[in-house]
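Convert to structure. Protein one:
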Amino acid sequence: MNSHHEMKVLPTTIRLAAVWSLVCLLGGCAPKSEAPGGAVQLRFSCLGAKQESDLANALARAFEAKHPEIKISVEPVAGMGYDIKLIMQSAAGTLPDIVFLADSLVPTFTKYPVVRDLRPFIRSDRTFPINDIYPQMLRTGMDKEGRIFQLPRELGVVVMFYNRTLFRRAGLPDPPPNWTRKDFLRMAKKLTLRDEKGRVTQYGFWAGYTWCGVYAPWVASEGGRVVTADGRSAAFSSPESLKGLRDLIGLVTVQKVAMPPNRSITIPGVDPFAAGRIAMQPQVFPQVPFYRATMKDGDWDVQVMPAGSVKRVTNMGAAGYGMSTNTKHPREAWEFLKFIVSHEGQRVLAKAGSGIPCLKSMAKDPCWRKPGRSPKNYDAFIKSVEFGMGWEDFLILTRAEVQDAVNQAFEKAFLGAPVDQAFKEADEKINKVLRESDRSD
């Protein structure tokens, strides 16, 4: 559920292929892999953001305490070029031993290649808890052949955050677990307030409308798909998909109960949910620490996403870690990866603020459930696993050119263009990109 593709000078496949070819010609030198005192030195790559480097360091230090014969150096990659740097290191033979991954990075990192298949390690290690990992999370690191390139570090699922205080002011109870989008719309109308001049002072809903974690399940809950079942074509313009898109966009343009994109009714830079200016928004667990710090306990909670006319659907995804193709220490690297998904490693991640453990046996663990702290309804995160759509169902949406086409369609629709027309054009653009990609491959 992350995007790491910001450079758009060239189409993604051409840009990455050019980098790969260049570095293959230049070559490189791998750093030494032995630490002082004869200990094995593992290099661990992560994103440059402080939260990510803090997580990586917490894992490394906890692992070293149990394995003094192995030392781990954390290598944050600053800026937005994480994928490019690791592809260059792969071509030069200088990759770290362990690398940060996310569902959206797996296809790129297996193509060039940055990471290796972990199935052989899993098969030969009877102590590995593969049956305890949420299978939906394990699939985020798999390819079509069933090879596993990423071990998830968390359970990533989208739920509806809601402001309980605003609900009570509107005379509304908490949304129930069996609520539907009709219930949601009724609530959103009551939660949208205007001043004497008709200006909206509080919206019932807001979302990152162009985030696939919002629009893909919104479409699927009406029986549609954003990608055909074979994963080779866009399907935004099917009748069922358009129904879901019209419903979502119409919350802004027709019902006027949702805050328009790129508009804030609070001070710039202030979170409108924390400020009490929107009553509901889809979000993920890593947002919880921020709301605990900025809102009072009891003022807010979470619930499973409302059901559409066909079914209840939510988005699922995961970040995680993989073993590089260049590592000279696969046994030690595997021990570190196995530690990350152990109960101890998952508690280290939870304490550092990562999210919900990826192990089913830790669904009730107090490392991530905090009695007396919001949210109260922790079970909504676990219950939502039943309604999650597979990451493979919209994998092509991680491509920059595809997401550009989707963004343009949403922009046109929010500005008044017919939704059907905007997304038919999006399908045409996306399918052209996919055809050209197939030819280049």
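Protein two, convert as well:
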Amino acid sequence: MEAPPATEKVRLGDEICFGVACRNFNYGPAGRALGFDGLRNPEVVANCSETAFRTALWFWMTARDNKPSCHAVITGQWAPTAADRAAGRGAPGYGVVTNVINGGLECGHGTDPRVADRIGFYKRYCDAFRIGYGSGDLDCGGQRPFNAAVAVAGLASQ
């Protein structure tokens, strides 16, 4: 798949960025960290199970730009700042993890059926393992997404 020209605007949820910046927000940095060319060959993630697994773990464990790592959030290692609390991200939990992963698309605008489905799966697996759901909100509908402008500005320096 060929990336759009660098001058083409692309909308990703509430984020607007240009060309390669949007498409390679994850694959470029993951590739640099893991030793594959995520900018020119992002399909390696879909075509190589080892690379896919390593990329998923990298994403889960890596804090980027203004977002904490999913791991830090779900294990309670992340502490919300005053700005996080003002944005509705007041306690570590599954809702903030969803915000880290897909906040620009699914968070900050009330009930979203995709999030509701994901919460159902999360509860199902927590119940199967006989573990609690955590103390934070499970939903991110009342949370503003992490600052997209900071993320896009970070891309410009890569």
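The chain has a mean pLDDT of 81. Residues 68-145 form a domain with the Lysozyme fold (CATH 1.10.530.10).
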